[in-house]
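Dear colleagues,

As part of the handover before I leave the project, I'm documenting each prediction I ran so the next person doesn't have to rerun anything. This entry is a single chain, and its sequence is reproduced below.
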Amino acid sequence: MTRASKELGEAGESKEPPRRREKLELARCDEAEAAERLRSLCDLLERVKSAALRGALGKTAARLAERQRKLRARTLRLAPKTAGQNLKQLPRKLRKAVEGLIGREAAIQAGIRGLEAAVAEAEQAMAFSDPAGAEEMRRILEELRTDAAGEAEKALSMLKGNVLFSSAPVQEGLASILEGIAGKLSAGAGGAKAVEQIATTLKEFIKRQSAIVSQIQGRLAEKSDVCKRQRTSEDQRLLHSDVREQAAAIASLAREIPRFRSETAA
């Protein structure tokens, strides 16, 4: 956009009558406002992305917590039937049941590792656009790597040793840790309401942007009648190109909103 402004500036030097220079200056101002508004739209998009990302991560943590609580309930139901026995010496049906618990706990542990990786990616993604959010991601990542991962490993080890009664409190503690993490992520996401507010603001920006584009095109049309010999064609091409780029960027932002709305829905 700077290049187009420069070209317009060259075309609007002192050879132009005052009225013509004024029209060119107005076109340059319109373009500058359009560029600033586009930057604001990009900032809004980053806010929506952060909200959607945190919301999605929060849902993942909540699902892991729910799975862990259900697994704890299964563990407690099976514990009286296997207490004090070696896993290998259990009847086949009971042994298969305990192995099922072990498999489910291992799957939850894998889910925690997956969540760790996703939170680490989120921390990097927010590093420049949302430093405060990135710092919160770092703290959550540390909690996952220490508290959640440690409890998950402990619960899995106890299940493998067929000490089901002892593993139940550990499973409960892990579920609570995951619920706490889910709460922190969801609180930072701001929920669907925040996304709707951003979407409304985006619509207002698009409406104003359309008016700016019309003004630029109108002033360029006026310019083409009075300055045909002063690089008018090239100036128009450059500025129209900028306007098209802005319109495409705005359309892209608008298309993102439905996806973020669904990702942050309750």
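Residues 246 and 252 are 10 Å apart (CA to CA). Residues 1-5, 226-233 have pLDDT under 50 and may be disordered.

All the best with the project,
I.
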